[in-house]
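pls design
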């Protein structure tokens, strides 16, 4: 691996750990997760929609982790940042979905906390496209 890509690699690893732990917590504590989010979105969505949304978001988190894994392998093997760019774009898209959900229920503290993750994803995207 070329040392030039070390910043991109570190950002990818940070996002990988973030999304992997998030998906793990959602799926392996399913009843607690569903209860929490059903309570949080009770005035906006039915519990069936909340459950489906949790599955979709978990699927996107796992897909992002897989894409990040491919990107890390690609950086070490080729070295290429093509998959890394797509991983950062998917990460940004996922954060926008989460932001939208938090803004619907007016969780302004939670949505402001997502800003840093979005900035990290966009920094990685910028970095991966201009190396």
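designed seq:
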């Amino acid at each position: 691996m070329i040392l030039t890509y070390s910043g991109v690699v570190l950002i990818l690893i940070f996002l990988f750990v973030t999304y992997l732990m998030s998906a793990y917590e959602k799926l392996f504590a399913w009843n607690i997760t569903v209860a929490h989010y059903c309570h949080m979105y009770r005035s906006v969505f039915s519990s069936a929609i909340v459950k489906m949304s949790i599955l979709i978001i978990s699927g996107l988190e796992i897909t992002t982790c897989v894409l990040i894994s491919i990107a890390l392998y690609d950086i070490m093997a080729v070295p290429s940042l093509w998959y890394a760019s797509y991983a950062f774009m998917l990460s940004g898209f996922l954060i926008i979905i989460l932001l939208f959900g938090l803004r619907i229920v007016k969780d302004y503290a939670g949505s402001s906390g997502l800003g840093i993750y979005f900035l990290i994803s966009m920094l990685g995207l910028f970095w991966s496209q201009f190396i």
